Amino acid sequence: MQQKLYSFKHQLEDQHKSRLNDLEGQYKSRISVLNKSIVVKDKKIGKLSSIIFQLKNEKRDIKKTAESVCKDLEDIIFTKDLKIIALNDRVIFSNPSAGRNGTIEPNTFISFHDAEYWTRKREDAKSNLNTL
After folding, report:
1. CB 3.0–4.6 Å: which of 13, 73, 91, 112 could bond 99 by disulfide?
2. Could you tell me which residues come within 8 angstroms of residue 87 by beta carbon, excluding any fewer than 6 positions away?
């Protein structure tokens, strides 16, 4: 009986050691797989981070370019407006009745009423940008 108990005890210990070795092998295998997946994910995160950084730089460059182009266009429009006003003044000076459509403000006014009209129009434009 003692020998059977001793044999049974060794058999259980062997089964326990075998199962323990199997579980340790599975644990090490899963840890290895998880470590490999972490390395892959870290590489992907690094790539995405560099892409985000690059896109932010491109966005900043595009914004600077757009602001520069906008300023250039505003300068061109302002210069064209001045040229139109100057040409309109020349037309009015040579022929006061020609070219008076009332939409271009002259640099000089023929009468006090014209000056008063354009002053009102400027003030209205400042208060309501949609009037012009």
Report:
1. 91
2. none
